[in-house]
Design brief:
- This protein is an alpha+beta fold and 302 residues long.
- The protein has two domains: 186 residues, no CATH class; 93 residues, no CATH class.
- Helices cover 58% and strands 19% of the residues.
- The chain is built from seven helices and eleven strands.
- A five-stranded mixed β-sheet has the order 4-1-11-8-9, with no helix packed on it.
- It is elongated.
Amino acid sequence: MSSSIQIDVIQENCQKKEWFPTSKIGGDHIVEKTEKEEYLKGQLMPILLGLITDSILDSITELDLTQRVIIISSIAIIYAVFYMTWKRSKYKQVKLKIEESKKPKELKESEKGFLKGILSRRVTVLLLVGFIVAIVLVCAASIVLGFTVERIFLLVGWLLLMIIFVLSGAFFSVDVALLLRGIAAVSLGGALSIGSVPTYGFLTAEPVELTIQNGCSTPLVYELLNINVSGFTTQTVELKPLTVTFTREGDFVFVYALCQTVPYYVPKDAFVSFDGQVIKPGESLTVDLGKQKVHEFFIKCV
């Protein structure tokens, strides 16, 4: 008879979606429910929030990457505070019902289940795998976009800090763990957007044409891009739409692409231009080759 009553109570609670601890249900179900909620609802939404936020910033603004990271981090903090407050309020309602039932054993099991849900291994693994993927994508995008090594280290450092946030939750209170997890989850979404959009665009884009007119005796060689133009010759090559930076300092033109800088000897009085934009000594020009299909790099020594 008692077994039949227990089954009826469980079925009734399942239908009502009431998973508050009772002597009929036990603590294991609380842990399972808390873990599933944290795993699905608690992490998917902030990841999507970060991803959508960066996508919007990239589409409708001219903000540079540093500014986008700052905005994403600010939104992450705001979300984490609201999420922590909501989660705590929800748990207090559960706790109050248990206290009113005067069952201290269930109260202890509920607290244990709540904490285990926040720090569940499944959620931690999900976030860590996500950050590993994000780091790979961000590094790939940094190479495509021609970021400096310093900026790449800054981005990777930001993601490593978020990984520390994920792992350090076990050493703090539940509130701090919720806050750190929330910040990390939103940041993960932003990082995935930052890394995946330019990387995918680069892999799927059609090659562009670059015509190099070398009017000097110095050959122009860039092995990573398969460029080798002898002196006083013209050559057209096909390239993926990279971002390239040209810098003139003294008697040299420094070309930066694919995280590599190659110097070329060019006299100060030489004429240097890219797509009609003159590059004078002391000046720098950054070009996104994906902006148009045909480009021209012109050097003429006097």
